[in-house]
Design brief:
- There is one protein chain.
- Helix content is 38%, strand content 10%.
- It has 14 helices and 13 strands.
- The strands form 4 sheets. Strands 7-6-5-4-3-11 form a 6-stranded parallel β-sheet.
- A hairpin with a 6-residue loop joins strand 1 and strand 2.
- Helix 2 runs antiparallel to helix 3, helix 6 runs parallel beside helix 7 and helix 11 runs parallel beside helix 12.
- The protein is globular, with a radius of gyration of 22 Å.
């Protein structure tokens, strides 16, 4: 059991690689010599390169002056990702941990309905990175570089979308493919989805899950500030959802329907519900489902009573008025029926301040993360504008990965989460913050929640 769990728990760091190697040796013994890791030389070179880089960052940072060495180091990292995928399968076969594709176990809602946990009950901390356009705009080498960087920095979830907001139906990916044949959601383009498969499998090989949106919200409606068109209907959304569910039945995915648009008309509600129904039917209910709302809103506003909604997702968004996201978390925390809640899209580093001046730094997203966690959330995604903007390769990869906000400091947040998950029954309190009490029925009713004080009129929280 230790072998498979340790392989999945390891991040792409020097200690993590040593654990992989130890796991491989133990797997060889337990499996009678089956599944050997032959290329010890590549392992030694990669760990040496990581050691030179401090053990936590991609080798290119330490080898920036030598282009050839940078290419070699990146190749070694990518090679290790492939080897880890193979190793996970070997360890799973030797120990009975994981499924036939070598992925980590599926996720589920904890018994107290406040958190997500692994199938075996281990707490799961959702440290997400938002890269909405990675499927549309990165080739496989760039995808490898991005995923290796995020795994090395401790992220556990990559949030992205299959059909992007801007020209997602018509602008081809780097391989020249678009998601659908003739723009028809019931005719998925197999060549395009092989690249989606690649991202999902590589993320899984590195121990991460993919928070995957089947489409952005403007393709359902309203179009709003997107490019549309509204091509999804209840009928074709259910067909598309079932096809996706079957294809990724055993993959490390968290399904996120929606996409920055709240439903307004009855057809919008019907389409999102049909998509969720199709996904659930296709994968047999193996994956969790939520809804990504637009700014300063929550999935609870539209779908809290729907059985398919496993947890609530807020979006505090990119306006100064939305920074006090703990208020949205508090609202959802006290609802019945009880569901886990998170801020799925706080402000992004380098994103223009909507309704204000300048750009957000890395400080505001970090503050939003801690406010959400201390208010009762179980996760803390982050993001950066470069991940969803057009631009050359250097901007898409280097600027996003090297940004201050791309180097999270998850340890305090993880420790805070670990004190509450998966069966937190203790009241949270703060001598510096007023205490509010849930009035709803169900688990958590009557519990004290520490909520930062409301800002003074005209002040920025």
């Amino acid at each position: 059991m230790w072998c498979g769990q340790q392989a999945r728990a390891s991040a792409l760091t020097l200690p993590g690689m040593i654990e992989w190697h130890t796991c491989a040796q133990r797997g060889n013994r337990e499996a009678g010599g089956i599944g050997r890791w032959h290329d010890h030389l590549a392992y030694a070179h990669a760990t040496e390169a990581l050691s030179e880089a401090g053990g936590h960052a991609a080798p290119r940072r330490a080898l920036r002056s030598d282009a050839l060495a940078r290419v070699r180091a990146r190749h070694l990292l990518n090679s290790l990702a492939t080897r880890r995928c193979t190793l996970l399968r070997q360890c799973g076969a030797a120990t009975g941990v994981g499924d036939e594709r070598g992925y980590a176990a599926m996720l589920r809602v904890s018994e107290n309905r406040r958190f997500l946990v692994h199938d075996d009950g281990r707490p799961f901390f959702y440290l997400g990175d938002t890269a909405w356009a990675v499927i549309q705009r990165l080739d496989r080498d760039e995808t490898d570089e991005y995923l290796c960087d995020r795994a090395a920095k401790g992220f556990t979830v990559i949030q992205t979308v299959i059909v992007s907001e801007f020209e997602g139906l018509t602008a081809p990916n780097p391989a020249g493919e678009v998601p659908f044949i003739d723009g028809d959601p019931t005719r998925p383009n197999e060549a395009f989805f092989r690249d989606v498969d690649y991202l999902v499998e590589r993320a899984g090989a590195l121990g991460m899950y993919v928070g995957l949106l089947p489409t952005w919200g403007d393709k359902v409606g309203p179009v709003g500030w997107g490019t549309g068109p509204e091509v999804f209907t209840p009928a074709n959304a259910e067909v598309y959802g079932e096809w996706l569910g079957r294809r990724y039945r055993d993959a490390p995915i968290i399904w996120i329907v929606g996409g920055d648009r709240d439903p307004i008309e009855a057809r919008h509600f019907a389409t999102w519900r049909a998509l969720a129904t199709g996904l659930d039917r296709g994968d047999g209910g193996r994956h969790l489902l939520t809804f990504h709302p637009q700014g300063r809103a929550s999935s609870s506003r539209s779908f809290h009573g729907d059985e398919w909604l496993d947890f609530n997702m807020n979006q505090t968004g990119h306006q100064l008025q939305g920074l006090a996201g703990y208020r949205q978390i508090e609202h959802d925390y006290c609802l019945a029926p009880t569901r886990p809640t998170l801020d799925g899209e706080p402000c992004y580093e380098d994103h223009p301040v909507v309704g204000g001046e300048g750009y957000f730094s890395d400080i505001e997203p970090r503050r939003a993360a801690y406010w959400a966690l201390f208010a009762g959330a179980w996760a803390t995604p982050t993001g950066r504008t470069a991940s969803s903007r057009r631009g050359d390769r250097a901007w898409r990869i280097a600027s996003g990965c090297a940004a201050p906000g791309g180097r999270p400091s998850p340890s305090p947040a993880r420790r805070s989460y670990a004190t509450r998950a998966p069966s937190s029954n203790r009241a949270r309190s703060s001598t510096a913050s007023p205490i509010r009490r849930c009035s709803s029925a169900g688990p958590g009713s009557g519990r004290s929640i520490a909520v930062p004080p409301a800002p003074a009129t005209g002040a920025t929280p």
